[in-house]
Amino acid sequence: xxxxxxxxDVQLEARLEEQEAFEPxxxxxxxxxxxxxxxxxxxxxxxxxxxxxxxxxxxxxxxYDAVLDDSNEPFxxxxxxxxxxxxxxxxxxxVADGRGDEAAIEWVGELGETRTYTYAELLDEVExxxxxxxxxxxxxxxxxxxxxxxxxxxxxAMLACARIGAPHSVVFAGFSADALATRMNSADSEYLVxxxxxxxxxxxxxxxDKADEGLSGVDHxxxxxxxxxxxxxxxxxxxxxxxxxxxxxxxxxxxxVDPVTRDAEDMLFLMYTxxxxxxxxxxxxxxxxxxxxxxxxxxxxxxxxxxDTYWCSADIGWITGHSYIVYGPLALGxxxxxxxxxxxxxxxxxxxxxxxxxxxxIFYTAPTAIRAFMKWGKEYPAEHDLSSLRLLGTxxxxxxxxxxxxxxxxxxxxxxxxxxxxxxxxxxxxxxTTLPGVNTMKPGSAGPPLPGVDAKVIHPNKAEVDPGQAGxxxxxxxxxxMLRTLYKNDERFxxxxxxxxxxxxxxxxxxxxxxxxxxxxxxxxxxLGRVDDVLNVSGHRLGTMEIESAIVGVExxxxxxxxxxxxxxxxxxxYAYVITEDxxxxxxxxxxxxxxxxxxxxxxxxxxxxxxxxxELPKTRSGKIMRRLLExxxxxxxxxxxxxxxxxxxxxxxxxxxxxx
Length: 661
Ligand code: WTA
Known about the structure:
Elements: H1 7-18, H2 26-31, H3 38-45, H4 52-55, E1 66-69, E2 77-80, E3 83-84, H5 86-99, E4 103-108, E5 114-118, H6 119-136, E6 144-147, H7 153-164, E7 168-170, H8 177-186, E8 191-195, E9 197-200, E10 203-206, H9 208-216, E11 223-227, E12 242-244, H10 245-251, E13 262-263, E14 267-273, E15 281-286, H11 287-300, E16 309-312, H12 319-331, E17 335-339, H13 350-358, E18 362-365, H14 367-376, H15 379-382, E19 391-395, H16 401-411, E20 418-421, E21 455-458, E22 470-475, E23 485-486, H17 490-497, E24 515-519, E25 525-530, E26 534-537, E27 540-543, H18 544-552, E28 557-567, E29 571-580, H19 588-601, E30 610-613, H20 627-634, H21 649-660
Parallel strand pairs: 4-17, 6-7, 6-8, 7-14, 8-11, 11-12, 16-17, 16-18, 18-19, 19-20, 29-30
Antiparallel strand pairs: 1-2, 3-13, 4-5, 9-10, 14-15, 15-23, 21-22, 22-24, 24-25, 26-27, 28-29
Helix pairs in contact: 5-6, 5-7, 5-12, 6-7, 6-10, 8-9, 11-12, 14-16, 18-19
């Protein structure tokens, strides 16, 4: 690899540009965990028992009676009456196997400091912290909230909770104080694990202030544990009910806490995610089905083996980090790399430096990151020896073929298969992707549904679309990693995911993930994106309603509509169209307060790219806001026929303003 555009480079680019299909390299296939395409038939012919293959990756204290119980659809149960503990599966059994000295977590801090936790060390600290949590009063089934950046104490706390049967609810550290309070109130969570702060681009940032502010909005008492991440770089005080993490762990040094026996269907964790309404949804995942599913997909799709060094660059505050930094990789006993910082600090080669240094075998990231790598230039990866890599993956949003090919060439050196994995918080794990040792890859298209996953692209009348046509992506059979319900809201669970296409009278249950997709003649699925009012900003899922209600809460705002506009780096960016209240002036002051309002209610990730003041919003004759039109305006697309609007004149006005900004 070189950084100049030699004639060979140009030729290679041209060849890659034309190539539409890529075969996995022979050397990969030979060693792959799954390399026989017969697996698709085996799963189809033997469904649902095929899922025993996933459950077999775990140690069960008691065998399950049935693989699937579908007697109360869509409240499916998996591996019923089976008993197990997730932390025992992620830790104890590897130590018992004599692998206690092998690295479980390789943590790289932003300032360059590193920490290695062997499986034995991780188990020790998990037991110590589990003992501390119990001392604080945490009992089985109490929800413990975590509000922490990428520091090792986060997976320690998650596994400690799993050990004592207390579900965790991790709130992304970039979310605001309000967002934390909403989630703690919704989950009746009386315990919080957080930290004093963290480093970003070398600066020590306060996090505890935000946590304290969040706590002031929680309507019940909370015991808080604070990790001292910043040492002398930031002083913090502990208030009533606040405890220092290191002190607690030291007090319980050498503690031994037996893993609590959990039923397969007992809750492992809650994860709040955005939906169509303003209120985040508490997605409930269980112990047996979820852990089986993430272990299986880690093995089959990410090709993880115990002696690999594997790195997923997501944040543990999102589902990708739960499933594919913590639970899947650790259940398989591999070494999981965790990086605290940003990819361009201190330099834009930070990630490639880490891959070289740790000899990373498998790397899993998001298209938004790949777009940034492309923009920075191929010289950064070229400075490093990335030959340890054997497989690459992406998740979170559609990847365009150009970005796919860049990743393939400049990171994978045309020697690593790429898995483009479609899934969601709700699905727990991957659903649609190629199997890297089996399938041809087609850049831009995620691939076929995984074995045993019944994903279909359908019309509103439920007929499957013809090849080349777009429709709605659906999943027509349950799978072990599926969400079981929305926390304390069974009704919303049914209406959000099952109402659109199911027919209860016919006992037909179809899961609708609210994504649009296209199907090819070979059954490959190309995911097109959300069809509901959910935005995907840099791979982060945000509800337009949540942002709108934050904006309407700002003094001087009468009405607001939020849509996603195309954005080169972020995929989608937030566009806010705002009508002011009489007596308030449009302008920078109000614009700043709107941005601040969104940051306070949700977090900087939801910050509007543009705030466009308008006297009116385009509405249909029946009074509905024409969001499509607002999207087209944001994207500078052809608007088509606007004559059905009640107020067509407003369109020119808004267009002019978007152009101006
Ligand atoms: C989108 C992230 C296209 C999709 C794991 C989905 C994707 C939403 C892909 C879920 C992909 C995820 N190709 N789109 N490979 N992966 N998405 O819950 O719109 O944060 O519904 O889970 O991301 O986002 P979530």
